[in-house]
Amino acid sequence: MSHIQVGVVMGSSSDWDTMQHAVSILQEFSIPHEARVVSAHRMPDDMFAYAEAAEQRGLQAIIAGAGGAAHLPGMIAAKTIVPVLGVPVASRHLQGVDSLHSIVQMPKGVPVATFAIGTAGAANAALFAVAMLARQNSQLAEQLSAWRAKQTQVAREMALPPVV
Ligand code: RP5
């Protein structure tokens, strides 16, 4: 069994600008992870192999980002019971609303937890994965609470500019 706990997959290297925000959070929390391109329509056999091996490899969550038709998260979810967290990547022509609708509209029976379009969604998917792992890891739970507390402090110290 591999040591990897969270897999981050995306449909194209062009998704990396968005998906690196998920990887950055996983790095910050020292979560063993991997990141790779697994294109649903250009490498469907690889996609199924990845999904089919996920549980046996010990993955606890798969963060899957895609743009446009964005079938990657749903198709991975169709082949594994490992929780899939979907990130809609902003597409060139429809700004990611297409990706969001595609990922969030999974028919009943095969869920994909769907996050916001773009970098906020990528970061939040990773934070959600951290929260899931923290249920079984008290040290990680403390780390996550501290991360939230820091964020609260930053918000409390926010200053507003003068009225112009
Ligand atoms: C999807 O198509 C990818 O997830 C990406 O968001 C989009 C465009 O891919 P490229 O044409 O940039 O490779 O499969």
TrEMBL record:
Reactions listed under catalytic activity: 5-carboxyamino-1-(5-phospho-D-ribosyl)imidazole + H(+) = 5-amino-1-(5-phospho-D-ribosyl)imidazole-4-carboxylate
One Pfam family of this chain: AIRC
Domain PurE: 4-155
InterPro entries in alphabetical order: PurE_ClassI (IPR033747), PurE_dom (IPR000031), PurE_prokaryotes (IPR024694)
KW Isomerase (keyword) present: yes
Stated name of the protein: N5-carboxyaminoimidazole ribonucleotide mutase
Residues bound to substrate: S12, D15, R42
GO molecular function: 5-(carboxyamino)imidazole ribonucleotide mutase activity; lyase activity
HAMAP family: PurE_classI (MF_01929)
E.C. no: 5.4.99.18
Family statement drawn from the similarity comment of this UniProt entry: Belongs to the AIR carboxylase family. Class I subfamily.
